[in-house]
Design brief:
Layout lengths: L1 H4 E5 L5 E2 L15 E5 L15 H4 L17 E2 L4 H7 L3 E2 L3 E6 L5 H14 L4 E5 L4 H10 L8 E4 L3 H11 L3 E5 L16 H18 L2 E7 L18 E6 L6 E9 L7 E7 L2 E4 L18 E8 L2 E13 L6 E4 L3 H15 L6 E7 L11 H13 L7 E3 L2 E2 L5 E2 L4 H10 L4 E5 L12 E5 L2 H10 L2
Parallel strand pairs: 6-10, 6-11, 7-8, 7-9, 9-10, 17-18, 19-22, 22-23
Antiparallel strand pairs: 1-2, 1-3, 4-5, 11-12, 12-13, 13-14, 15-16, 16-18, 20-21
The protein binds thymidine-5'-diphosphate (TYD) and magnesium ion (MG).
Thymidine-5'-diphosphate (TYD) binds next to helix 4 and helix 5.
Length: 459
């Protein structure tokens, strides 16, 4: 009886209850109890079959040095930019969650990766819950994968999917998408947090027990969270997010968590009519092409992961109503409010009665504070209706006291800008290189007002 096994688990503290309650009886948090399945049988607990299984049993205490460190075996997926974000390739028994807006290219990328793996002689399985086998076949033809040997299963019931994975033992299985998978054991509707979480947990267990690498595709909700509010992120080994504007050609895949590699590494792709193609030299793709410098635009060098990227920050300052709007796309909204306050207080630039919009070009998301200086310069440039000089770049974090703080690996950023033909830079003092960089005039500043003066002096 499915009902007998139902249990409600708190997403905050892990406490359980036999019926649904608004408030968790253990930690008193509200609305955190979700339906789950109680594991029956002696010797079983919630950790059986997971990577924590070893922890759940009594173990002898050992010094760290005495524990053998086994190297992780990775299989390159055959798509360089994807391998880069994965930290070298797909790991045996590893679980990857790949999220992104609908239509951004998740299915396309994974089908291409599976085909490359299959060609390399590894058995693969593509479980489709959103599209029929015929639709997947149509996509593969479009991608030019006419004789693809990738095994396709159109199925959404968890138990059947697990049985197929266990009997077939592929090297890699893709579940597209986790939101469509449901288990008969739960009464909740498919796509609900309880279903998504429980199904992901079972698939994770299956991956750890069988050594099959599993890739879960997850949709992002309107609020920008993976449906099943982030509950999947802690369960899996690697979390990748697709970024980029569906209207532009370029897509970024970013690792935000990786137990087997560096985080914040990015892979860059271009969507072509033959699927996603890796862009190996991506530094200049997030610049819009102005023939003449325009007001409200400032280029910055961002360094997330290992590669510097030049990104154009645009601002539009326009007279607003009684409660002016502040809007940012691709940049932190709270930080924008803070930067406007700093601009007013320390540089005397007032935008109180103005609408302020800022945007990072190309749908890229910049989370590092090194964007601060470029955002402020773009805003000031728009407010004054005066363009920054040709070939201008800026970066640096700005503090509440108006100080300009250094960005990590400043030299690398400057060298990349010089390589792409930029000629003037305003950077934090601590980032100014000791040796001059050919072709680049560098203005090192310690304070916001200094940066504003430098720019004003450029005429
Ligand atoms: P898709 O991979 O289905 O996105 P997701 O699985 O993330 O929802 O599709 C991505 C979009 O890319 C789709 O709108 C059509 C387009 N596309 C191309 O431009 N070229 C191609 O070769 C393919 C297969 C899709
Ligand atoms: Mg899809």
């Amino acid at each position: 009886m499915a009902k007998d096994k139902t249990l409600f688990t708190c997403t905050e503290c892990g406490g359980t209850s036999l019926r649904w309650l608004g408030k968790c009886p253990s930690c008193n948090a509200w609305n955190t109890l979700i339906e789950s399945v109680a594991e029956a049988g002696p010797g079983k607990n919630r950790y059986s079959g997971t990577q924590f299984a070893g922890l759940a049993q009594a173990q002898a205490v050992m010094p760290l040095a005495a524990i053998e460190a086994t190297d992780i075996a990775r299989t390159p997926s055959g798509i360089d930019e994807l391998d880069r974000v994965l930290g070298g390739g797909i790991v045996e028994g590893g679980v990857v969650l790949i999220g992104g807006d609908p239509g951004i290219g998740k299915s396309t990328l994974l089908l291409q990766a599976l085909d490359a793996l299959q060609r390399a002689g590894l058995p693969t399985l593509y479980v489709t819950g959103e599209e029929s086998g015929a639709q997947v076949a149509l996509r593969s033809r479009r991608l030019g994968l006419d004789h693809s040997q990738v095994n396709v299963l159109a199925e959404i019931q968890l138990e059947k999917i697990l049985a197929t994975i266990e009997s077939m033992q592929p090297a890699v299985a893709v579940i597209d998408s986790i939101q469509t998978v449901y288990s008969d054991q739960l009464t909740s509707a498919p796509g609900s947090v309880a279903q998504v979480r429980e199904c992901a947990a079972h698939l994770t267990r299956c991956a750890k027990a069988s050594g099959v690498a599993i890739v879960l595709v997850g949709h992002v909700t309107k609020e920008g969270a993976l449906a099943g509010p982030r509950v999947l992120e802690h369960m899996v080994d690697t979390v990748l997010y697709f970024e980029g504007d569906t209207h532009s050609q370029f897509r970024l895949v970013r690792a935000i968590k990786n137990r087997f590699g560096a985080v914040n590494e990015i892979g860059v792709f271009a969507m072509t009519e033959k699927g996603l193609k890796g862009v190996s030299n991506p530094s200049a793709i997030f610049l819009s092409q102005h023939s003449e410098p325009v007001p409200g635009s400032c280029v910055m060098v961002t360094l997330e992961g290992t590669r510097p990227l030049l990104v154009e920050i645009q601002a539009l300052v326009d007279s607003g109503g009684p409660s002016p709007r502040r809007l940012s796309v691709g940049l932190d909204k709270d930080r924008l409010a803070m930067l406007l306050a700093v601009l007013h207080r320390h540089a005397g630039v007032a935008c109180m009665d103005q609408d302020v919009f800022v945007n990072a070009v190309g749908g890229v998301r910049i989370s590092e504070p090194a964007a601060d200086l470029a955002v402020m310069l773009a805003i000031t440039s728009s407010l004054r209706g005066k363009a920054l000089p040709q070939g201008f770049i800026a970066f640096g974090e700005v503090g509440l006291a108006g100080e300009v703080r250094p960005a990590p690996r400043g030299q690398e950023r400057l060298r990349e800008a010089a390589k792409l033909g930029f000629s003037v830079a305003v950077v934090p003092k601590a980032n100014a290189p000791k040796k001059p960089i050919e072709g680049l005039t560098i203005h090192a500043v310690e304070r916001v007002e200094e940066a504003m003066n430098v720019v004003r002096g450029m005429g």
